[in-house]
């Protein structure tokens, strides 16, 4: 789309104001356009050049607007739009906290200090909607306390030591040549593009193999210089544990060759698929009819603190948090200091039937 806010007027069959709906969107949400109308074109081919790619951002990123520029030396029709945000982290980060006993106790004591207020709000909840609002408020309170007293874990970069900018550039070039080869319509041009792509792909694979092998050799030399019986020795001596294969399980008269195949065969034998027509025995039918016709006005017994503590104890530790972003250790610490909070919440849900 084009507009004079981010590019000069181009005379052709299309209107220069076709970007008006997008301009309305930018104004409505308070965004800023970083494009410079006097910059190089953002889209360039042998037949046309135009300014159709737009960069917008909120006011929080205005500090980097002056770094916006167009890079024309690319392998695609669309030029790169580059900008520098510096070292400021503007991405949304899932709060995964670095937990220790001292900081967890501070969080638990803070929640215990406001426990009477929370219990009073819980008792005033008379409907499922009130309970939902209370749970949301309680979750937000715990998240705020955790953000105050706990520290975030540092993210670990998942990369390999031998990958560098040269390999990155060569991979991008290979992908670009592959796209050009697939888009070519003329058979003669397609053959030329195919040859260029294969040459570049072979060069990329060769360089990838060389850098990987060189990095592995350097690693082996470094490790062996410290300990002669380290990982390289174990690999050569065949002392590295291999994946388990259960050879006694057979598929089609032949032993399984992998652990996955063995597990699939076990599941297939122990848990066969149901028939297309669902059948049930007399006992199953009687049980189903009893459950469907069950009606009782008696209230179920309330949960106890021991039951809640036992359920928390049986849960697994060091697991990723859910949508509420509350880790298991935080819930356990709060329950140890304020045991009435969770059990009162569960019993209130039981009384209201939520």
UniProtKB/TrEMBL annotation:
Pfam families per UniProt: Exo_endo_phos_2
Endonuclease/exonuclease/phosphatase domain span: 1-81
Origin species: Araneus ventricosus (Orbweaver spider)
MF GO annotations: catalytic activity
Record protein name field: Endonuclease/exonuclease/phosphatase domain-containing protein
InterPro entries xref list: Endo/exonu/phosph_ase_sf (IPR036691), Endo/exonuclease/phosphatase (IPR005135)
Gene3D superfamilies given in the database record: Endonuclease/exonuclease/phosphatase (3.60.10.10)
